[in-house]
């Protein structure tokens, strides 16, 4: 399925091995990793198209289904569950209805989703005329050709602190940053502080070796400050460079995952950026154009924009917290069938799995 501006393989949990090491070994073979082309699997040779969603009925009374996101690394035998994916999230509700996990309404269906990676929740609402998922519609999102049915995703306030370091600003390697977590740990950095404009193409930024080194150093230190520990082997926190808007939005962004530059921006990352821009004194608040009386914040990115509905609560003398976050995305079922992974005895082992014990399904 395509979910938002990402693409991935969606599985029922019961169709995969229960043991994480066996599951990950199988998913590497399914996606064709490690190989920069992923020529022998379903992956699309980029982090945005090498993703997996694992869905199951939820035992949590606040949710209908559980959603586990797995990032399958393209060129290394690694599978990470250290982050959420707000793009694939857009397809979870329709998938749950398609697989009979949630009954469809006659006009629209709302599915309550627990994001297993973080413990956060979301509710996705989408059209189901006559009790069937309808992927057609007139909603447009940047980075995706054509139109599709709108999937409205509402996020309750995160259980994590909005400012995980306890400060509005920090300084890392001499660079002012604001560390935000409104569903995705994100580090906000003014592009000018790293001697780039923030308007460069992703390809231009990825070719800048000096920039990559600076970003790596900042991310490692930010991870520790945000309570994430050693993040050298993970894709969080995200780093987002900020510049004044160019096309009528609130801010221009360039986001790194962790060193590859995103061709757009992740939903949860954008939610963190939108919340961060509303915090007085934060990095980016001085260069962004945010209407304090309007919830909608338009985040510009390399291929267009993403609109986030965001509002905060800021009691006197206390750090702000998120009050409301919502986004409109789209999703589409691309194919439904059986995948034939390569043989286990020819596949590299996951880096966190000392022995390959099979993984056939």
UniProtKB/TrEMBL annotation:
Ordered alphabetically, the record's keywords are: Isomerase
Q: Where is the composition biased (Polar residues)?
A: 352-361
Enzyme nomenclature, EC number: 5.3.2.8
Region Disordered, residue ranges: 339-361
Lineage top rank: taxon:
Bacteria
Query: Record's Pfam families?
Result: PrpF (PF04303)
Q: Which family does it belong to?
A: Belongs to the PrpF family.
PANTHER family given for it?
ACONITATE ISOMERASE-RELATED, ISOMERASE YBHH-RELATED
**Could you tell me what this protein is called?**
4-oxalomesaconate tautomerase
Give the lineage.
Bacteria, Bacillati, Actinomycetota, Actinomycetes, Kitasatosporales
